[in-house]
Write a structure and sequence with these properties.
A hairpin with a 2-residue loop joins strand 11 (about 255-265) and strand 12 (about 265-275). The chain starts with a strand and ends with a helix. It has a 15-stranded mixed β-sheet that branches. Helix content is about 35%, strand content about 30%. The longest helix is centred in the last third of the chain and has 24 residues, at about 345-370. By secondary structure, the chain is α+β, with helices and mostly antiparallel strands. The protein has two domains: about 5-155 and about 335-380, Gcn5-related N-acetyltransferase (GNAT) (Aminopeptidase, 3-Layer(aba) Sandwich), CATH 3.40.630.30; about 165-315, Gcn5-related N-acetyltransferase (GNAT) (Aminopeptidase), CATH 3.40.630. It has helices at about 20-25, 30-40, 50-60, 115, 140-145, 170-175, 180-190, 210-225, 240-245, 295-310, 325-330, 345-370, 370-380; strands at about 5, 15-20, 65-75, 75-85, 90-95, 105-110, 130-135, 155-160, 195-200, 250, 255-265, 265-275, 280-285, 315, 330-340.
């Protein structure tokens, strides 16, 4: 076990520990989970002990090492910032779990954490550049970064549907326009011709969870192929196994879950999601490409929203990267920022050239290509 302990002389009772391997992370897991419960922050699922421990168990390597910064006050954990060190010549600090995590954030005790977090940035070392992608506006991490300017070329936003106004699924349906209700019925009737429709929300302990995850990922990969899109995270060896290994609990409405829409015995659409403090992250949705004209994904999303309302969940979060379908399903947005903090001349050059300019420019160029050229470029 590699564990760096660094007392902070200017603050009595404050101790800074950097967890540099899975053994050290597991040793702090109980205190980590207790801190999660105390913070109650819905935008910290990707900093949870379950996500971070499971991710590093599958994807950790000598080239991708955890560097989880923790602060303890009088023996009690008051802040956790899960980072990882990766890269070759240019050593990068990134949120642990990139590119699979969606929000960069940190866990801070609402009562005792502010003092500890003042030392977080000062305690970072051994890297050329820190890149923080997807920092929510108003988050604990955004507050820590203070006046540091984000990269304007990588500004993003998350689309969300506020469910708190709907006491029942019927109240939600009543808010739909006449056209929306007509389209809703048309889709369901078209899909019902493939077999009787059924919807279920599965949790990891339920039979069929892992199998459903595998089917959804197969549908998603086909969609990426057919549309010429890139799915960097899905290309990681072991991604299916990682998602199937995540914890979730029906009683507490927490952790991983999987919504499934079937026509007869055929899984025609599904969505892997994460529940965290009354907030639902719609992480990965997929549908049977052969039925795309009938929009099974929209039917599944509609049924998922109704399930969430029935169970008292307050937010349906479609995550970052704006899209037309997300705009149609949401009623508010949250700004997401990317920060690049160089710690060396090499890191400054990398941030200025690749992170801020070439990377966003190449992405725009790729998605600006006609569909057939995108497929050729992807194959190449």
């Amino acid at each position: 076990m590699t564990l760096l302990t660094r007392p902070e002389p200017r603050e009595a009772g404050i101790e800074h520990r950097v967890l540099r391997d899975s053994t050290a992370m597991a040793g702090a897991a109980a205190a980590w989970r207790d801190l999660e419960a105390r913070t109650g922050d819905p935008l910290t699922y990707f900093q949870s002990a379950d996500w971070c421990l499971k991710w590093i168990a599958v994807f950790g390597s000598p080239k991708c090492r955890p560097q989880v910064h923790t602060f303890w006050q009088d023996g009690r954990l008051v802040a956790v910032w899960p980072l990882m060190l990766s890269g070759g010549l240019i050593k990068r600090l990134e949120p642990l779990g990139a590119p699979h995590g969606q929000y960069a954030n940190l866990l801070v005790d609402p009562v005792h954490g502010e003092t500890a977090t003042r030392w977080l940035l000062a305690g970072l070392a051994g890297h050329d550049l820190m890149v923080l992608d997807g920092v929510p506006d108003g988050s604990a991490l955004a507050a820590l970064l203070g006046e540091t300017p984000p990269l304007p070329s990588l500004a993003n936003s998350a689309a969300m549907l506020d469910l708190s106004a709907f006491a029942t699924p019927e109240a939600y349906a009543a808010e739909l326009s006449k056209t929306q209700r007509r389209n809703r019925n048309r889709r369901r009737n078209a899909l019902a011709r493939e077999g009787a429709l059924s919807f279920v929300m599965l949790f990891p302990d339920d039979a069929g969870f892992a199998e459903g995850v595998a089917t959804c990922l197969a549908h998603k990969r086909q969609w990426l192929h057919e549309t010429g899109r890139r799915g960097t995270g899905l290309a990681f060896e072991g991604f299916d196994r990682f998602l199937a290994s995540l914890s979730g609990d029906r009683k507490t409405l927490s952790g991983a879950c999987l919504s499934i829409l079937k026509a007869g015995d055929r899984l025609i659409a599904g969505e892997i999601g994460f529940l965290h403090h009354g907030h639902y992250h719609a992480y990965l949705g997929a549908f049977d490409w052969a039925l795309r004209e009938a929009s099974p994904g929209k039917v599944q999303m509609d049924m998922t929203v109704c399930w969430l309302i029935e169970n008292g969940v307050k937010t349906y979060d479609l995550l970052g990267n704006p899209a037309d379908y997300k705009e149609n399903w949401s009623n508010r947005t949250l700004g997401l920022q990317t920060y690049a903090l160089p710690a060396s001349l090499a890191g400054r050059a990398y941030a200025g050239l690749w992170t801020a300019r070439l990377r966003p420019g190449l992405k725009r160029l790729y998605y600006g290509l006609p569909f057939r050229l995108r497929r050729l470029a992807k194959a190449g």
